[in-house]
UniProtKB/TrEMBL annotation:
Residues 1-173 form the Reverse transcriptase domain. GO terms for molecular function: RNA-directed DNA polymerase activity. It is an enzyme of class 2 (transferase). InterPro entries: DNA/RNA_pol_sf, RT_dom. Its EC number is 2.7.7.49. Pfam families: RVT_1 (PF00078). This is RNA-directed DNA polymerase.
């Protein structure tokens, strides 16, 4: 890496599949071109879902579910990832969030399942913008960072920059070896 003022952040989603807002899910699917029978089936699953609790062998009154994808549903990871891709796109397009240059290549983020890894230059100047963007996305989508499971790897040769950057990051910062 040419620039020695960068950070790699591994972001873990907090209870990822359980938090996604149903109306946002449906709008997102529609906005990415899912329509017709496919969208109708997903709407049938998510527009007015209910759950029951069985207590001592007796089924209690149904109650509405307002967030989350269905447990054990094979579509759940895909639906979550479609929603997460909106956040990834917003991060990629945000010019204030500078990507790392590695040789001739540029890297800004990678997605794997519900986790996101970000590769950012000028961490001190970028972190606030990144966290604000994720927070705003979370308000409409239901997405939230699991701060305890997320981790940052800070690479800088400047002690002042390192101290200032550490103050802005809510995640654990990996120890240097």
């Amino acid at each position: 890496m040419k620039n020695k003022n960068c950070i790699i952040i591994s972001i873990d989603a907090e209870i990822s599949f359980d938090k996604i807002q149903h109306p946002f899910l449906i709008k997102t699917l529609s906005s990415v071109g899912i329509q017709g029978s496919y969208l109708d089936i997903i709407k049938a699953l998510y527009e007015r879902p209910t759950a029951n609790i069985i207590l001592n062998g007796q089924k209690l009154k149904a109650f509405p579910l307002r967030t989350g994808t269905r447990q054990e549903c094979r579509l759940s990871p895909l639906l979550f990832n479609i929603v997460l891709e909106l956040l990834a796109t917003a991060i990629r397009q945000e010019e204030k969030i500078k990507r790392i240059h590695i040789g001739m290549e540029e890297a800004k983020l990678s997605l794997f399942a519900e986790d996101m890894i970000l590769y950012i230059e000028n961490a001190k100047d970028t972190i606030k913008c990144l966290l604000d963007l994720i927070k705003e996305f979370g308000k409409v989508a239901g997405y939230k960072i699991n701060v305890k499971k997320s981790m940052a790897f800070l690479y800088t040769n400047d002690e002042l920059t390192e101290r200032e950057t550490k103050k802005t990051i809510p995640f654990t910062i990996a120890a240097k070896n």
